[in-house]
Amino acid sequence: MDSAGDRKAVGARFIAPAPLRMDIFLQQLINGLVLGSVYALVALGYTMVYGILELINFAHGEITMIGAMVSLAVISALVGTGVDMPGVLIALTGVLTAVPVCMALGYGIERVAYRPLRHAPRLAPLITAIGVSIVLQNGAMLIWGRQYIPFPPILPTGAHDIGGATISDVQIFIVMLSMSLMAALMLLVQKTKLGRAMRATAQSPQVASLMGVNVNNVISATFMLGSALAAVAGVMVSAYYGLAHYYMGFLLGLKAFSAAVLGGIGNLAGAMLGGLLLGVIESLGAGYIGDLTGGFLGSHYQDVFAFFVLILVLVFRPSGLLGERVVDRA
């Protein structure tokens, strides 16, 4: 006997899955674009360094963490003293403090850890990058402690409805600032003297040096630019999630590296595309993984998607979606 009443009494396994709701899909898409904008900013640091040195700077995620920690220290100090400033200006002060600190840190890392190993076997700078990452993590833990540091509630909390989905003022600001910074970086690389020097150095450091380009200065400037973007991304992450932690840069860095590989490591446009795509894939996966697995997996498994995408790209298209930048240095 299999009547409707019996099916209802047995349990929910006989109930058909709910149809796709466009408001939920749109909400996950918005969340993914916001997250992807941050991934893209961090991925640009990876891809710029690789494009010039063919080096994966695994300490880059920790620079993002340092940017978040420094900005939060400044913001918390200003809020604690009761300074009469709008919240946006306080946050901007934190960003403007974190950016030069991270640029100096990026310059120091390149000068001390990577430059002496520039002509060493590739494994040596890779291990050094991992070592620098561990040093920065432990240094941040000693300075700021193990606890999570909350982001003060100083930013606007307004929200806007779009087709049943909600987007906050902070999310709008993150996306707009990220897009502006990415556009500014593309203009710098394509239209300025420094950008031409960077492209020449990426093609051939030896020939660029013969043409009067100071290769060491160009490489240092590349590290500093990437570190500045990482500092801004760190502040965005801490403002978006409302907290910062000394270990936050590790996973963020791995995801941004996955985004750079997805788009094509060494390709600026690829890093931007890869970051946005990875954010959208991760957000949609987190939103629907419960339905797809019948509740076996929850949204806290969202990190799986970043590395699953990385594996697929490495297996089926190692050069990335837009192609890895191939440099002939023979």
Helices and strands, with pairings:
Elements (H helix, E strand, L loop, with lengths): L3 H7 L11 H32 L6 H21 L6 H28 L8 H22 L4 E2 L8 E4 L2 E4 H23 L1 H11 L1 H6 L4 H27 L1 E2 L3 H16 L4 H25 L10 H14 L14
Antiparallel strand pairs: 1-4, 2-3
The proportion of residues forming helix, as a percent range, comes to: over 70%
The fold-level CATH name is: ABC transporter involved in vitamin B12 uptake, BtuC
How many β-strand stretches?
4
Ranges where pLDDT stays below 50 over 5 or more residues in a row are 1-18, 326-330
Radius of gyration: 22 Å
Q: Determine the mean pLDDT.
A: 86
Number of domains: 1
Structural class: mainly alpha
Order of helices and strands: HHHHHEEEHHHHEHHH
Could you tell me how far the N terminus lies from the C terminus, measured between alpha carbons in angstroms?
78 Å
Q: From the 3D coordinates, which CATH architecture would you assign?
A: Orthogonal Bundle
Strand order of the largest sheet: 1-4
* Tally of separate helices: 12
Quote the beta fraction. under 5%
Instruction: Report the principal-axis shape.
Output: globular
- Largest beta sheet, briefly? 2 strands, antiparallel
Please report the first level of CATH classification, the CATH class.
Mainly Alpha
